[in-house]
Sequence to fold (866 residues):
Amino acid sequence: MESKLNEKLKDFIIESGKFKGGSEFFKVDRGKLRDVFNALLREFKGEVHVTTITAIDRLDEKKIELDYEIWIYPIKKAITIKVDTPRDDPKVDSIIDLVPGALLYELEVHDLFGVKFIGNSYLVKPFIISEDLGSATPLRKDWRGPSRQ
Amino acid sequence: MEGSLTSIINLIFGPQHPALHEPELFRFKVEGEIVVKAEPRIGYVHRGIEKLFEKNAYIKGIYLSERICGICNVAHTVCYCQAVENVMNIEPPPRAKYLRAVVHELNRIHSHLLLLGVAAEELGFDTLFMLIWRDRELVMDLIELITGNRVMSAFNTIGGVRRDVNAETIEKVLKVLPKLEERVKYYRKVFEEDPTIRKRTVDVGILPRRDAIRYCVVGPMARGSAVDVDIRRDIPYAAYDEIPFNVIVRDECDVWARLMVRVDEVLESINIVRYALEHLPSGQIRLPLKRSAPPGEAISRVEAPRGELLYHLVSKGGITPYRLKVRTPTLANLLAASKLFEGHTIADIPAILVSIDPCFACTDRVTLVDVKSGKSTKVSLRELARRGRE
Amino acid sequence: MNHVLLLILQSLIFPGFIFVFFLALFVEWFERKLTGRMENRMGPTYTGPHGILQPFADFIKLLQKETIDVVSMVPQVIDLLIVLALSIYIFCALFIPYTGNAVLSFRGDIILVPLLLGLASSFLYFAGLLTKNALTVIGALRLLLQVIALDIPMISLIALPAIFTGSLTIEKVSHIMPYCLIKQPLLIPVWLIALLLLAITEQAEIERNPFSMPHAETEIVAGYLTEFSGARLALVNLARDAQLAVTSSFVASIFIGGLLTSNVLTAKVINVVILLLETFLVIFVATEIKCITARLRIDIALDFFWKYIIPSCIGLLLLAIVVKVII
Fold:
């Protein structure tokens, strides 16, 4: 089953590697994100669990990286799908119709990093951050705090 | 109040409410006694912790991660330390791993007992609540014996644990465990057989397995819905690859199943603690502290009492992390929970709420909440009072 | 003149206002202390010996606090309703033969007293309803449903001592009661079943677990009591304690009875002691049931009442009539 995973995703993977500690990650083009998820869901009969969507603001490389941390039940394997999106116009397809549980993570990334998830109609700002911060995206590296905005 | 009693009333739970032990807002639209729609809104305990991590050294991060949640603080520090240790390419000595498992399990017992007492209280069963919390004191005393603190253990550090146990401590702990086990077996019988509890929890808040997976629920909430997952067994960490234990899974999918999963997990945890202390390897308890980490990324997953806890650490060298992402279990369960309320009566709200084991201090570090209509949910105090009166 | 003066003194002091006031506070302490000990904790301990002054201290404290009025309340009417409820409980106390003779007594008062107790409950319901808060409305609704459900069992159960003793006066029933069972032992099993049903119905009447839905703490904050504060809350608490005290005294006097008929002063004092002890016994049983059960849902409780309790009570009543006729 595990080799099938590599095979199925072969078409989409740009780069693959391992984190320190052993878990695998696969870099994927952001246009192919939904295809990857569709493939995974088809292969594993929907038993795919999205733990979270980690957003990393890579200031030097002028991109925001989104890490979809996934747990696949049938093969008991944890993998990460990495997607890059440009910092000045961060947009990614939403996956909430494929995996409804990812809703809160997309909302979170939207609120704190300003990434737009196309197809997610629930996006709203501000949400968890305080109202007086308005449309700020606090977790970006160049955010200097409310008093200095 | 306009209209008849059967028109839709907005019933607001929170942010302060006797049913909630942490501040959050649930706006329930009720018709008579039936909940038609539930909209949670969290963020009341949002403290900007992820940003704080980026500004503090790794060693300070331990204290920060511990304070994300008081009840499951051991899980947070274990996960954090593991993530940092992975990035730094160091591995704690075996004795430290066993001790981590011991305190981790004691923390789990304490958390589950807390929740079971709270569940009893939510159902109106004050006596059971008082008795369970009285026995939880036994666990608090054990944790104090080993770590020096009743709640905030301050036990883990990067590279190992901070305090050692001697033979006398081990003996004391092993003497208390049978007493605790006997009490918990009695509570198990109560939860299993008491008719008033069963009437309030059986067939209430049913979450079918398919939905449990689609909504990405974790922990006892998932295991109560026939989803067989436990990080301790599936991605073993600390000493769990060497300690035998069972994963409790139930297929009734209702509130009762989730409570029973927790009771049985307490019994399993007691066995784990006993095994770990009896097979404690000798050696050091910690490695010399490294202050800075090489560049790299690491993910650490841990089975906190409420479910899967994930830390994703990105390091660009230096003594502070570049990015540290924390995903706590209650956030994962919140979406499914807000769907569970619909179709049930108001009296079922506390029962369902407590079966998620909400820990909003964990959830709010950085989170958001779904409002189905997408409208802003910021309401002023006056508005809340007015809505409460409608 | 003398007679009227005596009546006034009795209404104000014993067994009227002052007596009910202190009995209510004592009953609250008794219940709290008992609940605490049953839950393996201390209960009130520090105010006064064994914490006996705690309810009194709470009452005084509440009187000093601010009464917060929500805009949509009609405070005068709410206060009136609460005072009326309290007055009705005090009025009912005058019918209970603490000394062996009730202050007010007439043939048929055994039907009047439960009616008045139910009326007082409904006043509290109206007071809750008038605060126009989502939580209080739900609590008041639950209270109403509960009262409707327990009315029939209450009346049919109260008819039983009347049937056993052949009298409709509380005073007479309390004298004849246990002795008539000894004379007609066939009635004893009927009496025991009646006690069981009574325990359940009484729990619903005084809104304790498993029937504490109207003021369910974890669901609707405090139900119909939510918006009360300050002196208003002090009075409401007093009213609810008086409800517990008077209802338990009433039930004790007609189901256990055993008061002496003599008019000697010592006999009267002994009667007071006997009736109070019986009252505490009733409260003990109620507290025991409260401590060992969780709270039901209103629909489950109503289901239980309408499907099982009401038919049982009516059946028991018919059985008692049949047995009495046979004997």
The CA atoms of residues 55 and 66 of chain A lie 5 Å apart. The interface with chain B takes residues 19-21, 23, 46-52, 54-57, 67, 69, 71, 73, 76, 78, 80, 99-105, 107-108, 110-112, 121-124, 127-131, 138-139 of chain A (CB under 8 Å). The helical segments of chain A are 2-9, 33-43, 103-113.
